[in-house]
Every structure is written in C-alpha cells, then in structure tokens.
C-alpha cells in the first residue's frame, strides 16, 4: 500500500496523508512520518517539511480518490457482497461466509467480528473499517487468492464513503430500526444513509431484502428490482412455517413453487430471517438450494450472538443486542421458548444515542420477568447519569440496578432457578469495557464460565 495515515506505521517510500480527525490531527505528526521513511506528505496547509509536500483542500478527499484510482480495479476483481441493516448484519454475514467456504468458495469476511480468511483472524476498529484499512484488507484477499468477500456495511460507512470505489455484486438488507440517531438525527436520514449502498451495486447485481420490514421496499424502489423474503406467499423466498426450540430451529420455506425444509442449530425468529437471507445470497451466486441445505448443519452462530451456556440449572445467553429493537426481539424470542423465567441484564453505552436509553429500560423491564440494569461501555459519561436516563422509561418494580457489570452477571447467575433463562445483552463478542478512554478486559461469556469453574464441580 502506497499510502499511510498513521505516522507510527509509515514505512520507507510511503506517502503520508495528514488527516484531520475529531481528536487527532495528522499534521501534528508529519515529522514522525518523515523520520519513519515517508517519501511525500499530503497536507491541507503549509508545514515545515524536508521532503516533497503537496497541499490539497481536503486530505480525506485526496485519500479517497487516490485509493480508488490506484487500487479499485484490483480489489473489484473480488465478488463483493455487502450486507446492511440495523440488526442481523453480523450473523447474516458470518453465516454467508461459512456457507460459501463449506461449498468450496474461497471467501473472506470483514465486519464486527474483524477480518477473517482461512487461518487469518484479525480485529478491526469498526464494523466497516476506515477506507485505507478496508482497501488494505481487500488487497490482502486478492493477493491470497480469495474469490469472494462478504462485508457488513454500516450507516456510518455509507455516510462517510468508506466504501468509495467499490462495486458490489450482491447487496442484502436485513431491517431498519432506531439506532445511531445521535449522528443521523432522524430515521429518514438514517434510512437515506442506508439506501446509499444501492449506488455501489452493479447494474446486473442482486438485491435481497427482508420485505417484512417496510423499509425493504425503499431499497427495491431505488434499484428498480429486488429479491424479497419473509412470511408472505407472494415473496420470492416464502417462509412458510417455523418450529423454534432452545437448541434448534426447523424452517419450511418455498422458492419457485418448490417446498424446502431445513434445520439449523440457531434459535429465535430473527435468526430465521438471518439464515434465509444468507441462503438467498448464496443461492443468488449460483449455488443449488439443496446443496446449501446439506451444509447447514455445520453452521454455527458467531460468538456473542445467542451464545448459550448451561449454568446453575438454567441457561445464560450472551447476545450483542444493544438497540431497543434488538433487545425487544431477543427478549420476546426467549419468552416464547421459556418454561420458567426470563431474567435480562442490559445497559446502554455512554457518549452515544441517549434517546434510546429510556426505551431500553422500558423494554427490558416490561418484557422480562426480572431485569438487572447495569453498565455497558460508559466511556466518558458517568454511569449513574446513564442509568438515570434508562430509569426514566421504567414504570415497573421488577428490577434492580447494579452498575458493576461483573457483579451484575454474578447476581444474575446466582438467582437462576431450574430452566430459567438469563439474557446478558449489549456486548456479545466484545472482550472489553470502555471506562473513560481506557479499555479494561471484560468478556461476558468468560464471566459465566468463570462462575461455573468456581461453583460447579464436575
């Protein structure tokens, strides 16, 4: 890669592009970049410089166009699958990634779970990485002989054009519910940001939408065609019936007047949508539905997505649900499966959308038999103030507040009775908690397993 934006990572001969971020200005690190071997500096203002300097009006725009000019043709040799929506992106993308590899396709994954290809598993900073990291990862896939990549595409990535220059062969839309309104301000703006993904879909590409979500039609209207799925006989993939248990889900669906039956080891109604979306994506690439179904029993949910642990006579379920809609869907799904109580542990992140906090409090307490309200990633906000916002939506008395997340998880486990279900929501796969500007180690699943080791003797 010819370009670099982190002065610490500059290698001999690279061009250092001085980006102006929210908290860090790359212009302050130009000397460091030169010491590390930069051959040229791209900046927005005059600076003392011992190597060639080019002044541009926007270093961000410069980088975006330079990457497209120099690398887009190469990375677009990949078949690129983009999945957008509020919830379900990670599970759908991860199922698609697994299915394609099981069917013999050399497929990579970029998203919330990081960067994955064969034995490579690296973390990424965002659901959709910044454009320089993204192009670097795609170039790596091309170099490694990869054929296809499935990517989660966030609304921020679309708003900030992190995917500039890419061409998608398949785009899938999962759903649209309230999230990120601290940035987008309105649901209309949020939807419009999501709709921008259609601009990257090649004219003969495939658009797959959850048509049970009313926003699905907006995507079809913009692209003028689309493949629909959901619980409606008029859709291309008609989900005819489901039988959901705590351990597996049986799905009957219809495509092109043919009936199909499949069993997945995933649970809950929203995972029915996720699985059928993944199946539709893979089918759209030319694979036979029967062949896809044959590989389905080898699939597993990603870490922190309805991840179930048997503990203290009940079940602890770790899930990333951190939006009102996701929390509601998870709690409702396990209410349908329960034979005893559903206890929910949940909180809200700091420095993020405060509008959803009272909604989350209301949903957790109204839909659960009992709730423990705790901290998520408080970041630079006072956890007690975040909790005050959450409690504004609470009108029941079936809850307690425990700001220390570790303690909240222990309390939840210890109050389990036989066949109770404990939902530990909000952080899923994350193995850290952000307090102030510091990341401390905290893994919800690890806390459950540590409790088991300490209290359950084999």
Tell me what the structure shows.
The structure is a single chain. The protein is of the alpha/beta class and 458 residues long. It is built from 15 helices and 23 strands. The chain has an eleven-stranded mixed beta sheet with strand order 8-7-6-9-5-10-11-12-13-14-15, sandwiched between helices. A six-stranded mixed beta sheet has the order 16-17-21-18-19-20, sandwiched between helices. The protein has a four-stranded parallel beta sheet with strand order 1-2-3-4. The mean pLDDT is 94.
List keywords for this structure.
458 residues, alpha/beta, eleven-stranded mixed β-sheet, 25% strand
Instruction: Calculate the terminal CA-CA distance, rounded to whole Å.
Output: 53 Å
Instruction: Estimate what percentage of residues fall within beta strands.
Output: 15-25%
Helix content: 25-40%
Shape: globular
Please compute the radius of gyration using only Cα atoms.
Answer: 23 Å
Number of helices: 15
**Uncertain regions: pLDDT < 50 for 5+ in a row?**
none
Q: Mean pLDDT score, rounded?
A: 94
Total DSSP E strands: 23
Main structural class? alpha/beta
Task: Characterize the main sheet.
Answer: 11 strands, mixed
Query: Strand order of the main beta sheet, please?
Result: 8-7-6-9-5-10-11-12-13-14-15
